[in-house]
Amino acid sequence: MPSIAHTPYPINIAIGESRGRDLYELTVKSLQNDLIIAEACGTVGIVVHFGHFKGSDALQGYKNIIQCLNETLSGWQGSAKILLENQAGTPGSMGITLDELVNIRRLSDYPEKIGFCLDTCHAYASGVWDPRTTDVLVERGRELGYWTDLAAVHLNDSKYPLGSGKDRHERIGQGYIGEEAFQVLLSYPEFQGKALVLETDAGEDGTHRGDIAKVKGWPIV
Ligand SMILES: [Zn+2]
Predict the structure, then answer these.
(1) Structural domain count, the chain
(2) Which of 9, 107, 194, 220 has the most crowded Cβ, counting Cβ within 10 A?
């Protein structure tokens, strides 16, 4: 069974040195440590959120991310990758589009050490994935070459409606996305063989057994 790791939530790879050199260096060291742990466990990679930058120069945030990825990966020889995750921000905010993810990877010094994790709740909340036009998302990903580097999917339903910008996961089929939309998305060949991970509340029995069985019961998975 493939597995993926997740970096600690306080990590912000867009921060650069805006809050001091020490915090930036700590960020790089933390990511390097995560890669070592992931490698020892044989996992595909470590999921890292795209990052937030609160400054007047939006471009600086993207530059910071690339610098952080370059420094983290410069001496890395393992097979575990950094897996960039799309964010749930409102339309127009940073790190929500496949375009940004692909371009950050492309502009970095070590694209071969970087892959992607698609969070379905975030894609829906940000308005990037409208289930009425799933083909638009899939086609954009094809044009960009995003799917080739997709390593994993955070399979989460959403507690809030399309475009809400809210990062609130719901159990599969119990949120605004719904089972049918997931089945349509996962039926595209781009999703075959990818690691699917639930980041949702446990069921009544305290486990995810029921939700996993539900997903496995879908005709396309
Ligand atoms: Zn996620």
Answers:
(1) 1
(2) 194
Structural domain contains residue 56: yes
- CATH code at position 103: 3.20.20.150
Cα of 6 from ligand 1 centre, angstroms: 9
Examine residue 221 and state whether it is found in any structural domain, yes or no. no
Residue 38: which residues within 8 A CB-CB, separation 6 or more? 5, 45, 46, 78, 80
How many residues in total does the chain contain?
Answer: 221
Residue numbers of the chain with a pLDDT score lower than 70 = 221
- Is position 98 within any domain? yes
CA of 197 to the centre of ligand 1 (A): 9
CA 189 – ligand 1 centroid, Å? 21
Structural tokens at position 116: 């992607």
Alpha-carbon dihedral sign for residues 120, 124, 130, 132: positive
Ligand 1 centroid from CA 168, angstroms: 10
pTM above 0.85, yes or no: yes
Q: Who surrounds ion ligand 1 at CB < 5 A? A: 119, 154
Q: Is residue 47 part of a domain?
A: yes
Query: 74 is in which domain, residue-wise?
Result: 5-216
* 172 alpha carbon – ligand 1 mean position (Å): 14
